[in-house]
Amino acid sequence: MTGAGTATEWLKRAGSNLLMEGKFPLPEEVLPEELCFQWQQSAEKSLKPVLVHRGKELPCMHSLSGLLDSRTDSDIEFSGEVRMSGILASNAVATRYPGNYESMGMEKLARARRIAEVVYVWAENQIRDGRR
Q1: Which residues have CB under 8 Å from 78's CB, separation 6+?
Q2: Could you tell me if 47 and 67 are in contact, meaning their C-beta atoms sit under 8 angstroms apart?
Q3: To the nearest whole percent, how much of the chain has pLDDT over 70?
Q4: Which of 55, 72, 78, 119 is the most buried (most CB within 10 A)?
Q5: Residue 69 vs residues 61, 63, 95: alpha-carbon distances, Å
Q6: 119/42 Cα distance (integer angstroms)
């Protein structure tokens, strides 16, 4: 995926997914679980520009845990909060389609939003501070 956009373009898309949260309270027709998918996408698109910024080839994957574990640059340090982003994937995948799952609840939903936001801000800081 080399050459698949600049770090700034990736962050713009990550920010867009982060903002797709709607307004609280959500309209009755909006399933809160759908927001988790948007936030997982935001976190994924936040991790990738850090690799782009450092001149690394992007792994062809959508797994947050995989992106965190497969980093080819040992000097990229992820805070515990950024490492927590792996849980967004399980929430997003489990609830993205109809099935037998427990509703997320507002507390879990708010936590998922905070995690996505932390990952976005971390990536923004990595790129803004020019870390290589």
Answers
A1: 68, 122
A2: yes
A3: 80
A4: 119
A5: 12, 10, 24
A6: 8
CA distances from 58 to 27, 31, 96, 102, 122 (A): 37, 32, 25, 34, 18
89 within 8 A of 69, measured Cβ to Cβ: no
Region of 31 on the Ramachandran plot (φ > 0 left; ψ -120 to 50 alpha; else beta): beta
Q: Which residue has the tokens 């497969």?
A: 70
- The per-residue pLDDT for 103 is 74
Its CATH class, for the domain covering 7-128, is: mainly alpha
Contacting residues for 82 by C-beta, under 8 A, at least 6 apart = 68, 118, 119, 122
pTM: 0.80
- The DSSP result for 68-109, as a single string, is HHS-S-TT----HHHHTTHHHHHHHHHHHSSSS----HHHHH
* Residue 2: CB atoms within 10 Å: 8
Burial class (CB within 10 angstroms; exposed 0-12, middle 13-18, buried 19+) of 8: exposed
